[in-house]
Write the structure tokens for this entry.
Amino acid sequence: MKVIAKSDRTVDIQGIDNHQMTNVHIGTVAGLVNTNKGPVILIMHQYALVGRGHSIHSPSHWKWYKHQVCDKSVKVGGKQRIKTVDGYLIPLCIHNGLPHLSMRPPTDKEFNSLSHVVMTEDSDWDPSVLDFSFEENDQQLIPPAGDINFNPKLIKQNGESSACPIIKVPKDYADAVRLDTINGNTKWQNTTKLELDQVVQVYKAFGNIGHKDHIEPPQGYKHIHLIYGVKHNGRFKARLVADGHNIAAGYV
């Protein structure tokens, strides 16, 4: 890439095996890329000016400024391209599983004659604005019930790993048995048994207050039913709840 400007601001960079580069200047760079509308010059502010080796771009940095970045291979359903807010489509190539952007420094003539596409703003960039972590009991991790595809993203372990398995989540116990039969295991049934066993243990902890004869439920009672989900670490989970979730079937 071509360095357009260098600021007095610096940053420390840490990489593999704790290798660190200190006091690296921040600046503005330009690179020539091919798009669906012909060659253009990408303008990228707030870049660390290392001065050697291949350039490393941050897709999250670009996404923050509303560009659409899909660096997933077309072989796994991705678009493998960047779509800028200006409507330019920039192809990516995948090599050894990693995305690469074909870019070179523009000549002075190219820089002055071709269209400029700004990828990031010229204001101090703080990547911590993107920071977020799911907690263990975060309800956002429990998908809606039904025979749907749910891709548990291993946030704390692997980031947005495309290697995460696609798991169908049952809408009730009968559906759990059906999915176990299809998958050739008893994972959903096992987590159901674990949840029910825990409920029984809690009941027993309060003493023998059960009854042998059938008794009508009191007025205003609530049905209890099972809901299913997948935790961020890929663990199957069943929960016994009273209302609170709009599930038509699955009463216990």
